[in-house]
């Protein structure tokens, strides 16, 4: 009898523990936590620089950051400070505190009212403007504070008995969880203008008061309760600190590596085993984390054939946040004389913010001379080390409906059509006309300009329809109804703005939550207070206590300009 030797199949263990697709705040936070726990981690980024919305870019040497405009809760013991301490990057970053007397300037119609830092200061300031509403203002702000506190309790709940008491400890959040901002605020505030001021930060989640969940809006207001802060060196400085921390723990990040698909195996129970890059290279890992939004992850990288009918139905119903136009300009003028400071300006045509938002979502965005709403900030005033003594950088943003660009959905970013370039030119002109409402003589002072569109967002950030906040933050897509970090595909996880929360800090915490899920621990186990880690905070409006390293950086910029290395070839008269 002939005996044949059968070769046994040998399954090689992948060299990597985790591949993370995308290097936004969520992806990098997850990467740091996993690498620190001893995992072999590889982060793949399609762009030529890491950071996602947090990255910075330069136009002729002048820095802009498309997705970081201010950050909150950075004082010792507050949640964003705890996040950066826990990630071990607090000592490597610094922030400028924006004008504490007016970190938000509300330009509503002809009215000009400032929002100071701190609930007590807000109540005092708005109480002077609206004396008949004093009691309502105090009660409303107390409710905002209570809901924020309760939201922060949830991830900290441990054990059976604490879970049992959750309904009692989060009674305000539970009571108002299905209420809109408009429904709640009208219970406390009567004056339409005051309502608009207290709701001005709807731009930070991208929904009008009638559609925005009250707990979500409360969370945004609470995030900036102690004021707004801007990272020294722009968003890119945060990214640099995070990538350095990742490398310190043995993790790796590769840019210019676009993932074509997530490799899955199995027939019934699908399992993610690696990724395939656009160049055809395949990289295997024990698990995959996608920092892309759910649409990009499941419909493009996984593919419809590999997901359940239930998930596909959900994806088909998922709504994404609005998209944007972002005007980046450098000006040769004294912007302080023009009335600007380190505070943001929210400009709305009138006090009915639901109508303003509805007007921003019209398909024909060339209709009308100006946009109905705009966010304006001068980054060289928020980040004094970026100012060379002459040229200031300004970022102006307006939200639009992604359908406004539907005729350009097949546009190739690197090979733009004449029709797209003309449309972009017309929109740039309308953006400048709108900006002139705040800075009347800005047009003649612009030395360079660039407009980011939904096409730009899709190309660089790879977001569905160019959305700016991931999934739309309506009541049925947040909290318990949001996409979970663990997906139906075995070994595939999600993080980012569509999972836990949006924004720089929210996305960062989502990465920690996903890492905790993988490591079978709690978020708090990964983010421990560290007394040796401290964020440095300086005043954007007061340079008297700047340390030598900041003064030297400012002086270097001025010296470069004086030597003709920086700046533009324009008349000095």
Features:
globular; 573 residues; FAD/NAD(P)-binding domain; seven-stranded mixed beta sheet; 18% strand
Can you walk me through this structure?
- The protein is α/β, with parallel strands linked by helices.
- Among the domains are: 16-95 and 232-318 and 473-526, FAD/NAD(P)-binding domain; 118-223, no CATH class.
- It contains 20 helices and 19 strands.
- The protein has helices at residues 25-36, 79-86, 119-129, 134-153, 159-164, 166-169, 171-176, 181-188, 192-198, 214-223, 235-248, 294-302, 309-317, 353-360, 379-382, 418-435, 454-461, 503-519, 523-526, 548-562, and strands spanning 16-21, 41-45, 57-59, 62-64, 94-97, 104-108, 111-115, 229-231, 252-255, 259-265, 271-277, 282-290, 323-332, 344-348, 373-378, 391-400, 446-452, 492-494, 536-539.
- The strands form four sheets. Strands 1, 2, 9, 10, 11, 12 and 18 form a seven-stranded mixed beta sheet that branches.
- α1 runs parallel beside α18.
- The longest helix has 20 residues, at 134-153.
- Residues 1-11 and 159-169 have low confidence and may be disordered.
Write the layout of secondary structure elements.
Blueprint: E1 16-21, H1 25-36, E2 41-45, E3 57-59, E4 62-64, H2 79-86, E5 94-97, E6 104-108, E7 111-115, H3 119-129, H4 134-153, H5 159-164, H6 166-169, H7 171-176, H8 181-188, H9 192-198, H10 214-223, E8 229-231, H11 235-248, E9 252-255, E10 259-265, E11 271-277, E12 282-290, H12 294-302, H13 309-317, E13 323-332, E14 344-348, H14 353-360, E15 373-378, H15 379-382, E16 391-400, H16 418-435, E17 446-452, H17 454-461, E18 492-494, H18 503-519, H19 523-526, E19 536-539, H20 548-562
Parallel strand pairs: 1-2, 1-12, 2-9, 5-19, 6-14, 12-18
Antiparallel strand pairs: 3-4, 5-8, 6-7, 10-11, 11-12, 13-16, 13-17, 14-15, 15-16
């Amino acid at each position: 009898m002939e005996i044949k030797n059968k070769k046994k199949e040998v399954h090689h263990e992948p060299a990597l523990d985790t591949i993370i697709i995308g290097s936004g705040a969520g992806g990098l936070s997850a990467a740091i936590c996993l690498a620190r726990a001893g995992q072999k981690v590889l982060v793949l980024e399609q762009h030529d620089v890491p950071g996602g919305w947090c990255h910075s870019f330069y136009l002729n040497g002048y820095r802009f950051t498309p997705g970081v405009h201010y950050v909150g809760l950075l004082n010792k013991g507050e949640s964003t400070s705890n996040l950066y301490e826990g990630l071990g990057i607090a000592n490597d970053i610094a922030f400028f505190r924006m004008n504490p007397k007016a970190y938000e300037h509300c330009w509503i119609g002809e009215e000009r009212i400032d929002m100071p830092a701190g609930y007590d200061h807000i109540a005092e300031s708005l109480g002077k403007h609206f004396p008949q509403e004093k009691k309502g203002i105090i009660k409303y702000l107390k409710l905002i504070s209570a809901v924020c506190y309760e939201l922060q309790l949830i991830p900290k709940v441990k054990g059976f008995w604490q879970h049992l008491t959750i309904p009692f400890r989060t009674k305000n959040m539970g009571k108002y969880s299905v209420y809109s901002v408009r429904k709640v605020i009208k219970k406390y505030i009567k004056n339409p203008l005051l309502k608009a001021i207290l709701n001005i930060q709807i731009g930070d989640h991208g929904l009008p008061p009638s559609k925005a969940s009250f707990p979500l809006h409360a969370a945004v207001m609470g995030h900036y309760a102690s004021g707004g802060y801007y990272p020294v060196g722009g968003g890119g400085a945060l990214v640099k600190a995070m990538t350095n921390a990742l490398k310190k723990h043995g993790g790796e990040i590769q840019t210019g590596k676009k993932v074509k698909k997530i490799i899955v195996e199995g027939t019934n129970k699908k399992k993610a085993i690696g990724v395939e890059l656009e160049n055809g290279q395949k990289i295997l890992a024990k698990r995959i984390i996608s920092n892309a939004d759910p649409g990009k992850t499941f419909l493009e990288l996984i593919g419809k054939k590999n997901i359940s009918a239930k998930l596909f139905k959900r994806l088909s119903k998922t709504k994404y946040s609005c998209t944007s136009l972002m005007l980046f300009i450098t000006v040769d003028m004294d912007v302080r004389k023009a009335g600007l400071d380190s505070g943001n300006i929210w400009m709305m045509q009138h006090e009915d913010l639901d109508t303003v938002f509805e007007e921003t979502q019209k398909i024909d965005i060339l209709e009308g001379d100006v946009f109905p709403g705009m966010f304006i900030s001068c980054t060289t005033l928020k980040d004094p080390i970026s100012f060379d003594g002459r040229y200031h950088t300004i970022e102006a943003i307006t939200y639009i409906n992604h359908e406004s660009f539907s005729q350009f959905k097949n546009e190739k970013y690197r090979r733009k059509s004449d029709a797209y370039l003309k449309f972009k030119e017309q929109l740039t002109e309308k953006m400048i006309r709108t900006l002139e409402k705040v800075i009347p003589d800005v047009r003649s002072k612009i030395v360079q300009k660039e407009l980011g569109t939904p096409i730009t967002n899709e190309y660089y950030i790879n977001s569905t329809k160019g959305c700016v906040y991931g999934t739309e933050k309506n009541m049925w897509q947040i909290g318990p109804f949001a996409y979970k970090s663990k997906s139906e595909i075995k070994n595939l996880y999600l993080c980012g703005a569509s999972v836990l929360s949006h924004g720089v800090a929210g996305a960062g915490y989502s990465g920690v939550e996903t890492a905790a899920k993988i490591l079978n621990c709690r978020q708090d186990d990964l983010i421990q207070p560290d007394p040796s880690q401290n964020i440095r905070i300086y005043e954007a409006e007061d340079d008297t206590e700047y340390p030598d390293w900041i003064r030297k950086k400012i002086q270097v910029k001025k010296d470069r300009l004086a030597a003709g290395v920086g700046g533009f070839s324009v008349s000095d008269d």
